[in-house]
Amino acid sequence: MLTRTPVFTAGGSDFDPTDPHLFTTDRHLEVWRQARSRHPVAWQESADGGFWSVTGHRAGSELLRRPTEFTSTLGMRLGSSPQAVRAAAGRMLVVADGTAHRRLRTAHSAWFTPRALAGLRADLLRLLDARLAELLDRGTPFDVVGELTALLPAWALLGMMGVPAADWDHLVGLTLRAFDDDERGPEAAAARTEAHTEVFLYFGDLLDRRRAAPGDDMVSALAQAVVDGRPLTDEEIVLNCDGLMNGGLETTPHAASGAMLAFARHPDTWRRLRHTPELADRAVEEILRYTSPPMHAMRTATVDATLGDATIRAGDRVVVWFPSCNADDTVFAEPGRFLLDRWPNPHLGFGGGPHYCIGAALARLELRCLLETLARRVEAFEVAGAVVRQPSNFLNGLRRLDLALTPAGTAAGADPLTGPRHSGTPR
Questions:
Q1: Can you tell me the distance from the alpha carbon of 179 to that of 191, in angstroms, rounded to the nearest whole number?
Q2: Which residues touch 108 (CB under 8 Å, ≥6 apart)?
Q3: Confidence band (pLDDT; 50, 70, 90) for 2?
Q4: Residue 42 burial by Cβ neighbours in a 10 Å radius (0-12, 13-18, 19+)
Q5: 419 or 123, greater pLDDT
Q6: CA 61, CA 253: separation in Å to the nearest integer?
Q7: Distance between CA 367 and CA 144 in Å, rounded?
Q8: Domains of the chain by range and CATH?
Q9: pTM of the predicted model over 0.85
């Protein structure tokens, strides 16, 4: 039997990234730093059998660009149920490759272009302004995650999907339970499965209603879509609605709350952003790099292949750790600093290759609207209580963040971030 080398040793024998609670402290950041300098692709022993751990930006980017050799169809995250993956493979964007992936992406992509999303901007700004005014009028610290940032993607995505506003809280709650990594064991797994089932049933019912009475929404469009000469199946639509809920509702709140924590810890950075609106788009990219909401993506080798200095065997799992890649000092100068004008900024906050996040433009719009609203309303942030990280090896962010916000006064002096988009930044 061939020996898998190099072996991941930076964290010691008790460093097991399949344990979601490992990421509730900062221990993994130093472990990854050591791994990047020694072997950015190395075999990681774990409770579930081991995998190749990719911590360097170059190798991570390369892995994501090689879907023929490293497939997503056998699962794209650690801890996935093999049965659930088999049921979704080829029918759900995140676990489809090749022709199947292109077909599904074509059906969805028209809804996620900057032009298609332009009309959403005014609604997001209005909803954010009203919510922030309410929180500021209260005059007390509040949990940013639960009372502000978690609402932003719900307003955007659920409206696009045609979910009635009366159902938003219920559906968001189901999604959070379906992807909750906090507890392990059969009871927790059963609870997640039950929540997923309820999400599937909800969208199955919504799809039936939209087929009978189409509206101007994404589910109605998917119900009528014909790609490569055939319509999408009910299973494809429902599975991808579930996938959009996970990707859309879970990641942007982590970027947004992480940014507000960074502004609280670095007040000069917030003052500079308020006074320099032309930095807004680059600030969004730096937020995505600095917070790195997706924790990992997994692929499985279809053939024997080389990645970095590792020889990977067919059937081996390979996991790229996005926060580590986004802190690679061979790519990002002073990666530990939150630099508003960092450019270029080739972060992997949206993944890469064919699976580059389909909702990237929506996430950028949500973050831009948040910055603009905060700039109008907030002069300063202060940590006022709990800063609790979410126990997860799939999502990187905060479960709770208590902040006190100082309302912007008439003498704050800053023009809010409402100027024209900076022509040198990505859309």
A1: 10
A2: 93, 218, 222, 240, 244, 358
A3: low
A4: buried
A5: 123
A6: 24
A7: 14
A8: 20-407 (1.10.630.10)
A9: yes
